[in-house]
Amino acid sequence: DRNGNELSRSYNTWVKDDKGNGVVFVYNSASDQIVYSRMDEDLKAKLPYAYEKKDHRTRVQYEYDAFGNVVKQIQFGEVPLDLSTLTENASVDIDLADTVIAQTTYHNNISGSNYLLGIPKHVQITDGFGKLTRQSWYYYDNSDDLEALPTKAQLTKKMDWLDGGENPVTR
User: What is the value of pTM for the model shown?
Assistant: First the structure.
């Protein structure tokens, strides 16, 4: 702010994974964002409804496949400020109702002259309790076969899940 107080801070947890044969995969396993409640007195007087008396920390964790695609992203929402209370799986003091989990499967076509990686095939979103909230399927290169490996990776059809109804399709 104008008084030099830090308003927010971001942390990224980087992991180095030696895959062998000189291949090293460096990836971000978690991102944390802290928003501090420090607000100068003039601003508090002008915006009393916006002032909260506590700092907030949110966390996102990532899992990857062998090609480096993010296959699982867990948005925990608010987590404890003191991360020493968290395990690697962030299973302590987490409000599961505030958690969103996105899981993605991909087409990775490395056959012949193709080298198409990270082409989304299916995205599924659940809450922290595992309840499905939405999902989508992606089709490429004018194929209606979800398992067909794309050769151009041109998205030509997207089908979204509709709970209790016919899944809508976009072409």
Answer: 0.81
